[in-house]
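go over this chain:
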Amino acid sequence: MSRIAHLTYIVADYDEALAWFTSTLGFALLEDTPLGGTKRWVRVAPPGGGTALLLARADTPDQKAAISAQAGGRVFLFLETEDFARDHAAMAARGIKFLEQPRHEAYGTVAVFEDLYGQKWDLIEPVAH
């Protein structure tokens, strides 16, 4: 069996990003291990599990430029839920900025939101098959 265990998510600051992902978005901290110097191995994931994000602090000019454009302006990540209305309301109450009203598509109920760096995400409740 193969799976994507985690994916790199470039951040400006470990602690700032960790606070946003855990306190604002409600993700779980899986690991925060010092690697020497200023490097850390920081992994977070949604409470339901799945692929984790490895928060990696930007060090080079190219990495810093990618912080808010990791998908070139497109939606980068898709946060799936089994209860869109509940999670949308909770996220809005915690100050998460939605860029649109919820909409119903053939694949599910969805709304685009921004993270702390302005990166676009979809909150989506897929249609049951």
